[in-house]
Design brief:
Blueprint (H helix, E strand, L loop, with lengths): L7 E5 L4 H12 L3 E6 L2 H13 L4 E5 L5 H15 L4 E4 L14 H29 L2 E6 L3 H4 L5 H21 L4 E8 L5 H4 L3 H10 L8 H12 L10 E4 L6
Parallel strand pairs: 1-2, 1-4, 2-3, 4-5, 5-6, 6-7
Length: 247
């Protein structure tokens, strides 16, 4: 579909769901994908699936809530591969609660993983991208970052923060041939949504103009496009892959 041959792609939160699908689709389009997650066994299984399909992937363990860990991971990848061409900040957590009941820890954990880790990874990766005069930075936000959601003040703030940070980075790095964009997924079929009752799924579908919950592949294909040469004139944008909810 898109030629990502010889590209080095780093994907955080790659052990399951959207991150797993992104890793597989990028690899199928020719990239060498470095799959990152806290649990090395989980992310190694994803890398094994990719290599079993005769594509290229390696696994790395990293607790991205610690900035030093993120910086060291990027440094290690650059030392080993000489470059990073595609950075996908996908890892994210939720600690949902109503604002009046939300603890400082719930706030800080979500901001650290969803927003600060992305900032650190971009800061560390952008140096080599500037030298290359090329690069693709893609941050996985959420429609919640665009419209908010009760009980998710911390998550919405982190995802809205990604959008604002992406626009600023796009302005800073565009002169060096680097693009920065966001994807804002809507409701997507994951382990969590699969556990929902049928009536809840039906209610969700009624809220979506296209009438269905999205698949992880819907998100992954959008990532592959933004990572490709075909998207070289797109930067600073937020693409809502949501079946029309935000519309």
């Amino acid at each position: 579909m898109f030629d990502l041959s010889e590209k080095i792609a780093l994907v955080t939160g790659a052990s399951r769901g959207i991150g797993k699908s992104i890793s597989m689709i990028l690899a199928q389009n020719g990239a060498h994908v470095i799959c990152v997650s806290r649990n090395i066994d989980d992310v190694q299984s994803v890398a094994n699936i990719i290599t079993d399909q005769k594509f290229i992937a390696t696994a790395e363990s990293c607790d991205i809530s610690d900035s030093n860990n993120v910086t060291e991971l990027v440094k290690k990848i650059i030392e080993k591969h000489g470059r990073i061409d595609i950075l996908i900040n996908n890892a994210g957590i939720t600690r949902d609660n109503l604002l009046m009941r939300m603890s400082d820890d719930d706030w800080n954990e979500v901001i650290n993983v969803n927003l600060k880790a992305a900032f650190t990874a971009i800061k560390a990766s952008s140096r080599t991208m500037i030298k290359q005069r090329s690069g693709r930075i893609i941050n996985i936000s959420s429609v919640v970052g665009l419209i908010g959601n009760a009980g998710q003040a911390n998550y919405a703030a982190s995802k809205a923060g990604l959008i604002g940070m992406t626009k600023s980075i796009a302005r800073e790095l565009s002169s060096r041939g680097i693009t920065a964009n966001c994807i804002a997924p809507g409701y997507v079929e994951t382990e969590m949504t699969n556990k929902l009752a049928d009536e809840v799924k039906s209610s969700l579908n009624e809220q979506i103009p296209l009438g269905r919950i999205g698949s992880v592949e819907d998100i992954a294909y959008a990532v592959a496009f933004l990572a490709s040469d075909e998207a070289s004139y797109i930067t600073g944008q937020t693409l809502a892959v949501d079946g029309g909810i935000v519309m």
